[in-house]
């Protein structure tokens, strides 16, 4: 049997697989897209799909091609994903640098070990195009800085995230993220997503435990 990436998913036909690539905050270059197209052509990938988490899924890979394809794609496979909108670099509505924070978060926690998988949304303004309020962790930019929210979820048990702190600089937001992940990893059950964790403990108790 071929060595499969840890995040490879068997498909409906029970023969082929899907791997999900994680471009940093959904940002890709023309050269990376050409490289990805070459891989898809080389291994006869029948479907490429952009996911809701700003990933790119290669669907229908044969098992014997998985290891080589995984080595040749231009992006990380799997890991935590960080969505980010164009922010102040491009969007006229942007109030904070969401792409910059998203890039830092990808480098900081993209492959970090956590109690359960983490989905992050980074929005450059309160309009919320990157869905921060339905992600495990969210950052929302505003005129007074970043708001950090935790405990959002979509799926079959949707939940709107709670506010952990407001009016943060980027440095303060990153420090608070470190503190929260340490607290979460120390106290959460194995594979307990942040939404269920916040439901169990309550946002006020979490804030108190973190000294907020």
UniProtKB/TrEMBL annotation:
Listed SUPFAM superfamilies: Nitrite and sulphite reductase 4Fe-4S domain-like, Nitrite/Sulfite reductase N-terminal domain-like
Name of the molecule in the record: Sulfite reductase, assimilatory-type
Species this protein is from: Halodesulfovibrio spirochaetisodalis
InterPro entries cross-referenced by the UniProt entry: NasD-like (IPR052034), NiRdtase/SiRdtase_haem-b_fer (IPR005117), Nit/Sulf_reduc_fer-like_dom_sf (IPR036136), NO2/SO3_Rdtase_4Fe4S_dom (IPR006067), NO2/SO3_Rdtase_4Fe4S_sf (IPR045854), NO2/SO3_Rdtase_FeS/sirohaem_BS (IPR006066), Sulphite_reductase_assimil (IPR017220)
UniProt keyword annotations, A-Z: 4Fe-4S, Heme, Iron, Iron-sulfur, Metal-binding, Oxidoreductase
Keyword Glycoprotein assigned: no
Domain Nitrite/sulphite reductase 4Fe-4S, first and last residues per copy: 82-210
UniProt keyword annotation of Calcium present: no
PANTHER family attached to this UniProt entry: NITRITE REDUCTASE (NADH) LARGE SUBUNIT
Residue span(s) of domain Nitrite/Sulfite reductase ferredoxin-like: 11-72
A GO term, aspect molecular function: heme binding
Pfam families, sorted: NIR_SIR, NIR_SIR_ferr
């Amino acid at each position: 049997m071929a060595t499969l990436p840890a995040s490879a998913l068997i498909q409906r036909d029970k023969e082929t697989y899907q791997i999900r690539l994680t471009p940093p905050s959904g940002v890709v270059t023309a050269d990376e897209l050409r490289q990805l197209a070459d891989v898809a052509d080389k291994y006869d990938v029948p479907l490429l799909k952009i996911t809701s988490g700003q990933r790119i899924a290669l669907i229908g890979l044969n098992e014997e091609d998985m290891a080589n394809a995984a080595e040749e794609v231009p992006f990380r496979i799997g890991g935590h994903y960080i969505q980010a909108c164009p922010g102040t670099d491009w969007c006229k509505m942007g109030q904070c640098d969401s792409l910059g924070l998203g890039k830092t978060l990808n480098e900081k926690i993209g492959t970090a070990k956590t109690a359960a998988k983490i989905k992050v949304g980074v929005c450059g303004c309160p309009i919320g195009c990157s869905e921060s309020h339905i992600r495990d962790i969210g950052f929302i930019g505003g005129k007074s800085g970043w708001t950090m929210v935790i405990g959002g979820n979509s799926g079959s048990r949707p939940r709107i995230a709670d506010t952990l702190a407001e009016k943060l600089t980027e440095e303060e937001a990153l420090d608070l993220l470190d503190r929260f992940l340490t607290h979460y990893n120390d106290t959460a059950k194995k594979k307990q997503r942040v939404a269920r964790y916040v439901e169990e403990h309550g946002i006020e108790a979490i804030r108190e435990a973190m000294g907020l």
